[in-house]
Structures are given as C-alpha cells and as structure tokens.
Amino acid sequence: MPMPTMAMPASTGTSTATTAPVAVPGNAVAIENFAFAPAALTVRRGTTVTWVNRDEEPHTVVAGDSSFRSKALGTGASFAFTFTKAGSYGYVCTIHPFMHGTVVVTP
Ligand SMILES: [Cu+2]
To answer: How far apart are alpha carbons 52 and 32 in whole angstroms?
Structure first.
C-alpha cells in the first residue's frame, strides 16, 4: 500500500546568531562615542595593545602612572603600547578625563 509522502517543510535550520557584534580583536581597544571599548582589557605580559580612534573627535590614551602616553589621535589614528610588566594600568583620555579604561596585564 502506498505510503503518503510527507511533505516536510524544508529545514532552514535554526537561525544561529553568527552576527556577533564586531568584536575588536583581543588586543585592541576601540575609542568610540567618547568611551574606550572594552573599558577593561586583560592581556598577557608582552602583549601589544592597540587603541584606534573611531570618533570624529581627537582622543588621547595616557596612563595614570605615565607608563604610556599617546599624542592626540585623530579619526582613524591608532596608538600601540607593549606591556612588558604585569600589573593593572588605568588610563584616561586627557582631553576628556571622564573617559577612562584599564588594561590588566597578567604575568
Ligand atoms: Cu577623548
């Protein structure tokens, strides 16, 4: 006896959310909308961290303990610093002191 062929709806698959927010690569900090993103970054000792200004406004990246200091970064400009010592480095944008971030360097 004939088996009715079940018309299975084409499986379109579950919509896996592959559209993750554009993650900044592990060692990069974006400067966007007057904020550092991520504001807190943890890296291993010896890592070079790069800040990229994605704002229309100039920003700086200046460590609280002066271990690094960028000049004013225009739109699209970047600043890189290699952390050779473990520790916690707080930094600010000296133009907008309310902008601050932290890089934690693990041994
Ligand atoms: Cu700023």
So the answer is: 9
Q: How far is the CA of 31 from the centre of ligand 1 (A)?
A: 8
**Could you state, in order of their start, the residue ranges of all structural domains in the chain?**
28-106
Give the model's pLDDT for residue 24: 47
Q: What is the pTM of this model?
A: 0.76
Residues 8-40: pLDDT tens digits? Answer: 555 454 544 444 444 445 699 999 999 999 999
Going across the sheet that includes 28-32, the strands are: 35-37, 28-32, 48-53, 78-82
User: Which superfamily does CATH assign the domain made up of 28-106 to?
Assistant: Cupredoxins -  blue copper proteins (2.60.40.420)
Backbone φ and ψ of 55, nearest 5°: -95, 165
Distance between Cα 65 and ligand 1 center (Å): 18
CA of 92 relative to ligand 1 center, distance in Å: 8
